């Protein structure tokens, strides 16, 4: 499932530049009304190389519904309950967020000799 924005771009088109094509990687669904309802999400894991489609194996689509995670087919992902769709530009590098948790036994800022004021600024 991709979104091609080529016809909406103006200006010089560089042959070396990647076309503005975006791949769907997550969908949030809402079931219910304005007062109440239920949210679920579909997402697929990107491959480590780029954001191109990777719909099979460990990188396939998943349904997240409360405490349950289920593998699903791509054809099930976009429905009339889709509320927010997330796209990533094709061939863009996948940036993983930094890990914020220190390994067990790692020194805390205070154990390394930092003062209380230094600890507050870094947290």
Automatic annotation (TrEMBL):
Residues 1-90 form the USP domain. The keyword Hydrolase applies. InterPro entries: Papain-like_cys_pep_sf, Peptidase_C19_UCH, Ub_carboxyl-term_hydrolase, USP, USP_CS. Its EC number is 3.4.19.12. The keyword Transcription regulation does not apply. It holds the Pfam family UCH. Residues 94-123 are annotated as: Disordered. SUPFAM superfamilies: Cysteine proteinases. It comes from the Eukaryota. Keywords: Hydrolase. One of its GO terms (molecular function) is cysteine-type deubiquitinase activity. It catalyses: Thiol-dependent hydrolysis of ester, thioester, amide, peptide and isopeptide bonds formed by the C-terminal Gly of ubiquitin (a 76-residue protein attached to proteins as an intracellular targeting signal). GO terms for biological process: protein deubiquitination. It is an enzyme of class 3 (hydrolase). This is ubiquitinyl hydrolase 1. The lineage of its organism: Eukaryota, Metazoa, Chordata, Craniata, Vertebrata.
């Amino acid at each position: 499932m991709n979104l091609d924005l080529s016809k909406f771009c103006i200006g010089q088109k560089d042959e070396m530049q990647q076309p503005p094509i975006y791949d769907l990687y997550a969908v949030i669904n809402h079931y219910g009304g304005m007062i109440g309802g239920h949210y679920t999400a579909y997402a697929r894991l990107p491959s480590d190389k780029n954001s191109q489609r990777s719909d099979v194996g460990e990188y396939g689509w998943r349904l997240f519904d409360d405490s349950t995670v289920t593998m699903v087919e791509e054809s099930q992902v976009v429905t009339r309950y889709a509320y927010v769709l997330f796209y990533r530009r094709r061939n863009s590098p996948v940036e993983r967020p930094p890990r914020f948790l220190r390994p067990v036994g790692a020194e805390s800022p205070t154990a390394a000799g930092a003062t209380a004021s230094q600890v507050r600024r870094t947290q």
